[in-house]
Amino acid sequence: MNTRPAIDESTGPVSLAVAFNQDSSCFAVGLDTGFCVFNSDPCELKVSRDFNAGIGAAEMLGRANYVALVGGGKNPKFPTNKVIIWDDAKQLAVVTLEFRSQVFQARLSRSQILIALLNSVSLYAFSSPPKKVSSFETADNPSGLCCLGSKIVAFPGRTPGQVQIVELGTGNVSIIPAHSSPLKAITLSPNGEILATASETGTLIRLFSTTNCARISELRRGVDPAAIFSLAISPSNTLLAVTSDKATLHIFDLPHSSSSISSSSSAAAPARSSSPYSTSSFDDPTASTTNNRTKWGILGSIPLMPRLFSDTYSFASAPIAIDDDPHAALRGTAKPAVPIPGIPGGKARKGVLGWLDDWTLVVVGAGRDGRWEKFALGRAEDGRRWLGRQGWKRYLGG
Predict the structure, then answer these.
(1) What is the pLDDT of residues 131-157, one digit of tens each?
(2) Distance of alpha carbon 272 from its chain centroid, rounded?
(3) pLDDT digits over 292-343, tens only?
(4) Helices (H), strands (E): how many in the chain?
(5) CA 80 to CA 71: how far, in whole Å?
(6) Cα end-to-end span (Å), the chain
(7) DSSP 8-class letter at 328
(8) Confidence band of 256 (pLDDT split at 50, 70, 90)
């Protein structure tokens, strides 16, 4: 007779999705019971709405009262082929967009709505009712990759590895052959002039100019393949942050702007001695100042050596928490993860990046063990920059 008590996995909500607003001052969390909104720093709950049903995507419009919602989880609040524009001031749905297939992502601006399906994206004018502006075919896009800027939009092309750039003012379309394998992550700089891309291989990050589609540079995350979680460019368009399933956060200089970062006043960067780091084993800013000039030493200047010896690497890195979701495997077993219905890729997102300023950024992840982590860049006495964690929190409590 088995008298062991059953493992209770029903206590507390589970976050299915997480996304920052445009300036990363807040982040929205889709739950299996509704959605909530947090301030990014300090990590504090602002809004919580209990629907007793799942939200697989929640996208904010700045700090306004509009949130784009898509149903998700085992018991979705809305059909997964609908986008609901929720007015939180009135606490009701004010716009509904319905499609023939599952919605994987929604992006909002004050004038545009961008919707990503598996094989297409649709652009709408944010009006009442919304007016469809255009629609574009894409390669399979199960992660719902798309970027909505003030002047352009970016999303996968019709061929795997390509990116389409569309000018909002003119409708002109440009194609960038970014990678030879399917895309895993894309992002636009705050000024819309730089596009960063990563493929499913995850070893290289490529940077392109959105004005002429020329490749600006290629940055190496590492040698081993990895799944890129998130890419984000700093508010001054000078730094790139990258997270991956290697449980590491990397910071790169953007090549065109490295001189401006190096010449920044030392007052802009916190000194190491003033960093309020805790005693957690994660909070170790030491040995995190590697760059391509020192990583391989003289090997980087020897002709005919493999290119990885001369590639540009991150100048700082730090570990991040990517705890396995309890849904992914039974305790003590190697049972594979069961896809969560109604969310991109079937997995709760980890390592989502948001820059608070040019020296501070936040990393958040979904799942039962949803975590918020704050990292800061600093400058040592010898001028080298370092990266360390300033704090962390389970934003769902527990």
Answers:
(1) 999 999 999 999 999 999 999 999 999
(2) 27
(3) 444 545 445 555 444 554 578 999 999 999 865 444 433 344 444 566 766 7
(4) 1, 28
(5) 5
(6) 33
(7) T
(8) low
pTM confidence score: 0.85
Q: Which residues neighbour 330 within 8 Å (Cβ) at sequence distance 6 or greater? A: none
β-strand 152-156 against 162-167: which pairing, if any?
antiparallel
Q: What are phi and psi of 267, to 5 degrees?
A: -70, -25
Residue written as tokens 């948001």?
354
- What is d(CA 381, CA 268) in angstroms, rounded to the nearest whole number? 14
Q: Are 199 and 179 in contact (CB under 8 A)?
A: yes
Cα 163 to Cα 166: distance, rounded to the nearest angstrom = 10
**Which single residue is written with the structure tokens 């003012």?**
169
What is the average per-residue pLDDT within 30-40? 97
The identity of residue 331, as a single letter, is R
Alpha carbon distance 170, 258 (integer Å): 32
Q: Answer for the pair 26, 40: CB distance below 8 angstroms, yes or no.
A: yes
For residue 261, the SS3 value is helix
